[in-house]
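Hi everyone,

Forwarding the result from last night's run.
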Amino acid sequence: MEVRFMSSDELNLTEGVWCVVANIKREHPFGEGGIETKSGTKQFRGGTKVYIGGCYAGTCGGVTCIGLHRKSRRFITCIVSVTHLENFRTKVAYHPKVVRRLKDDERCWFKTMEDAERWASAFPEWQEIWKRAKKPDTDEQSQGL
């Protein structure tokens, strides 16, 4: 087994970056009426830990996630619907590849613990907004409209 030492750039990146961490939901409703269930997303397995560096403010729908890809097990960065995430919490990311992606991506804008905590508490509220938006209006259905 080959021993590899960290470069000076990697050592500088290991100081850590504050971000929001979440897990991909193991199962989520899918299809017409949400009858079927799917495990994880196309990119991530259910239960995968993802680092959230930012979001699309205004839509409350998608967040920038960094995590291990479902098949290749390499770190990827992609936009994931906030409805596919659970267990939001704040943490310092130390993995050099994650830190590099968080620092290099202008969409990733958490800089302090306070920023990360504020957003970690906001994401569950966004999920509620999307749940209400996706539910059909029960009054209209009962009236036959």
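The mean pLDDT is 79.

Cheers,
N.
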